[in-house]
Design brief:
Blueprint (H helix, E strand, L loop, with lengths): L1 E3 L3 E2 L4 E3 L12 E2 L5 E5 L6 E4 L8 E2 L23 E5 L2 E4 L4 H5 L9 H14 L2 H54 L3 H27 L2 H5 L1
Antiparallel strand pairs: 1-3, 2-7, 3-4, 5-6, 8-9
Helix pairs in contact: 2-3
């Protein structure tokens, strides 16, 4: 959380919240005196801050930062950031499957695996047979989803391997062209050039002589 717009006293200072380490920021809000500020989290596991003024001089300065590192049972603590690699000019390829996608329902996944495990634990402790059956079914769905992500990761790996092989072939061709250009025998080329230059000059001289010939000179 970062205080902005010059900071200010508790109850008046404006702030904004980032849930991705400061890469992006939410809308500017005003911190209420004695109230709570929800930073992040799912229902029942919210991460909050509470500020209380203890004196007239209490307040926040511009860009004051507060960081919350919270861990809650049954709540995924990672993020949904993609990892990518350059595969060409202006082209990048995402090569990972995020934990958010694989283990929660916040990304593309349809099952929050951590929530299911927590619910299954509760059902087992309470002897809730129907609850156990329901959560086992959701675990099966999560397993199918993870298998899909494993296959997707394999396909991405294969695509990157092909791209790397293509670049290696291109690198070898460029190296061959450079070698053919740089490793040439300059002395031999100079001798050949001089010989061709001499032959060309001789041809020019003959052409000039032929141009000067008249019919009388030819008959003589």
């Amino acid at each position: 959380m970062q205080f902005v717009n010059g900071g200010g006293a508790v109850g008046e200072a404006d702030y904004r919240v980032s849930t991705d380490g400061g890469k992006t920021w939410g809308a500017v809000q005003t911190a209420s005196w004695g109230g709570t500020i929800t930073v992040d989290g799912t229902a029942g596991h919210e991460q909050v801050l509470r500020f209380t003024a203890s004196g007239a001089a209490d307040g926040f300065a511009e860009n004051d930062l507060f960081t919350v590192n919270a861990f809650a049972p049954g709540v995924y603590g990672g993020n949904g950031e993609d990892l990518s690699v350059a595969t060409g000019r202006g082209s990048r390829m995402v090569y990972n499957v995020t934990g958010e996608e694989a283990f929660t329902d916040r990304g593309r996944g349809g099952v929050d695996l951590f929530a299911v495990l927590e619910s299954l634990k509760t059902a087992l402790e309470q002897g809730d047979r129907e609850g156990v059956i329901d959560q086992v079914g959701r675990l099966t769905a999560a397993q199918d989803s993870i298998r899909q992500y494993v296959a997707e990761s394999g396909a991405r790996r294969s695509s990157l391997d092909i791209t790397r092989a293509n670049y290696q072939v291109l690198d070898d061709k460029v190296a061959g062209l450079m070698s053919a250009t740089e490793d040439v025998d300059l002395e031999r080329l100079i001798v050949e050039f001089k010989m061709k230059e001499t032959a060309l000059q001789a041809s020019y001289a003959m052409s000039v002589q032929i141009g000067k010939m008249s019919i009388l000179e030819y008959l003589r």
